[in-house]
């Protein structure tokens, strides 16, 4: 007789062996399911947090378009020219710049809401298509917007101008990777049957 407790001993007959294997699979499956669910929940939560940072940035960007002495976050002058100087030269220039800033704020906010909604209501539930779209949408926005900042056309304070976007992006990407880990794990049979 072994010194191990009965539930820790190897089975001695075929029926016990089958039950032991079955219970082992159930326990392993439950642990994988929890790990999958935790990855999806935590990843989606981080994606939503990143999207909320984008949304706050958009709101600040919007109000700053109307109530600021500078052009936008971190851009007080365009190579020494103030908004007041441009407005004195031609009021339509500042009207046009304000219009572009308001539109940009709207698109940043819309992207944040869409990405956050897809993460919370789809990625968290393990829907691949929502993860794919929730990753593609902000990637396209950032791929279009960020390169212009490194062409040297104007000076800006990168911490206030791009820092929040980089912070939100880092959090969002970490969340997308955590969720991807969960998505790549097999879903429980009951959940797969519903999809």
Explain what the structure shows.
By secondary structure, this protein is an all-alpha fold. The protein has one domain (39-185). The chain has 7 helices and no strands. The two termini are 49 Å apart.
* Rounded average pLDDT: 84
What structural class do helix, strand and pairing data support? Answer: mainly alpha
Shape: elongated
Work out the helix count: 7
Q: Ends: how far apart?
A: 49 Å
Whole-number total of structural domains: 1
In N-to-C order, the SSE pattern is: HHHHHHH
Number of strands: 0
- Biggest β-sheet strands, sense, barrel: none
Q: What helical percentage do the residues reach?
A: over 70%
pLDDT below 50 for ≥5 consecutive residues: which ranges?
none
Radius of gyration, CA atoms, in whole angstroms: 26 Å
Beta content comes to under 5%
């Amino acid at each position: 007789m072994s010194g191990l407790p009965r539930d820790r001993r190897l089975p001695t007959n075929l029926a016990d062996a089958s039950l032991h294997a079955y219970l082992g699979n159930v326990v392993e499956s439950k642990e994988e399911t929890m790990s999958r669910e935790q990855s999806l929940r935590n990843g989606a939560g981080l994606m939503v947090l990143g999207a909320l940072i984008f949304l706050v940035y958009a709101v600040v960007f919007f109000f700053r378009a109307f109530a600021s002495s500078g052009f936008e976050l971190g851009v007080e002058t365009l190579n020494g020219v103030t908004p007041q100087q441009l407005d004195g030269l031609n009021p339509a220039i500042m009207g046009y710049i304000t219009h572009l800033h308001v539109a940009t704020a709207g698109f940043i906010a819309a992207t944040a809401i869409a990405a956050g909604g897809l993460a919370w209501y789809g990625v968290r539930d393990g829907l691949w298509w929502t993860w794919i779209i929730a990753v593609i949408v902000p990637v396209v926005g950032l791929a279009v917007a960020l390169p212009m900042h490194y062409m040297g056309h104007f000076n800006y304070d990168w911490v206030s101008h791009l820092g929040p976007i980089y912070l939100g992006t880092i959090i969002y990407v970490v969340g997308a990777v955590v969720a991807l880990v969960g998505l790549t794990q097999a879903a429980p049979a009951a959940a797969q049957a519903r999809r």
